[in-house]
Amino acid sequence: MTYKSLLCVVTDRQSAEPALAQMTALADRLDSHAEILCMGLDRTQLGYYDAGATAMVLQESIDRAQSDATELLTYVNETMNKSDIRWSAEESVVPVTNLGRQVAFHSRFTDLVIAPQPYGEHGDRDAEAVIEAALFGGQAPVLVVPSKGQPISLPQTVVVAWNESAESLNAIRRSIPFLQAANRVRITIIDPPAHGPERSDPGGMLGQMLARHGVSCEIDVLSQTMPKVSDILNRHVADSGADMLVMGAYGHSRLREAVLGGATRHMLEKATVPVLMAH
């Protein structure tokens, strides 16, 4: 198994740069095909205009979205033409209320979605919807790229967050190509439950499963010395010199609207290395 089909959804030029750089580095190393969707978003359905808005005003918004999509495609073509990878790009105008549906459809047919950081000082306001749609609607793993830092071709040290949940296990399974390529994989458990199924050997069964895939693992059992688990994980990533974090994405889907849980949001806001998530 490897990542042969990569997808990046571009809605903002500034935040797209690190995501495209990461996609290019991976596609070059893995001989993958990179697909880029350049989406101009029509926001007329979000309540930006009152009921008395004229057809001319609404048409101006659609025209602006079309112009945005064309500009994004031009930027992507100029950027990707400098690379030697196999790639394709297309533009489209999408009502912002339909963004999730479009992203979910394309995500279903890709091995890995690469997205910019949705929160923080340089976060992309539309990246949250893209990530949620890929995770919940497309059931695809997502690699969230921080706004600062250099792209990695393949990680050398990976921290794997393990809490015995289905989301965590699914993320780990989806990350196996990265784990096999890494020199060190650190299964990280924070305050394992005293009466849980792994109480006598936290992370042992997971380490055995990964070892059968040729993954060399270490197990780190940490105490919750900080209020937020995400803060502990980020500190452990820094202390370990890790260049990738793997974790489950927590949240729910209600009436086709996916909502990331608070722990996931905080992790994505503070992350300093790429984070691979799956639901």
Give an overview in words.
With about 280 residues, this protein is an alpha/beta fold. About 40% of the residues lie in helices and about 25% in strands. The chain is built from nine helices and twelve strands. It has helices at about 15-30, 55-80, 100-105, 125-135, 165-175, 175-180, 205-210, 230-240, 260-270, and strands at about 5-10, 35-40, 85-95, 110-115, 140-145, 155-160, 185-190, 215-220, 245-250, 250-255, 255-260, 275-279. The strands form two sheets. The protein has a ten-stranded mixed beta sheet, with helices on both faces. Helix 3 packs across helix 4 (about 125-135) and helix 8 (about 230-240) packs parallel to helix 9. The longest helix has 26 residues, at about 55-80. The radius of gyration is 20 Å and the shape is globular. The relative contact order is 0.15.
Share of β-strand residues: 25-35%
Name the structural class.
Answer: alpha/beta
Bulk shape:
globular
In spatial order, strands of the major sheet run: 3-2-1-4-5-12-9-6-7-8
Please provide the ordered H/E string of secondary-structure elements. Answer: EHEHEHEHEEHHEHEHEEEHE
**Helicity, as a percent range:** 25-40%
Mean pLDDT over the residues: 90
Largest sheet: 10 strands, mixed
Q: How large is the radius of gyration?
A: 20 Å
> What low-confidence regions span 5 or more consecutive residues with pLDDT below 50?
none
Total of helices:
9
- How many extended strands? 12
Measure the end-to-end span.
19 Å
SSE topology:
Elements: E1 5-10, H1 13-30, E2 33-42, H2 55-80, E3 86-95, H3 99-107, E4 112-116, H4 127-137, E5 142-145, E6 157-161, H5 166-174, H6 176-181, E7 184-190, H7 204-211, E8 217-222, H8 229-240, E9 244-248, E10 251-254, E11 257-260, H9 262-270, E12 275-278
Parallel strand pairs: 1-2, 1-4, 2-3, 4-5, 6-7, 6-9, 7-8, 9-12
Antiparallel strand pairs: 5-12, 10-11
Helix pairs in contact: 3-4, 8-9
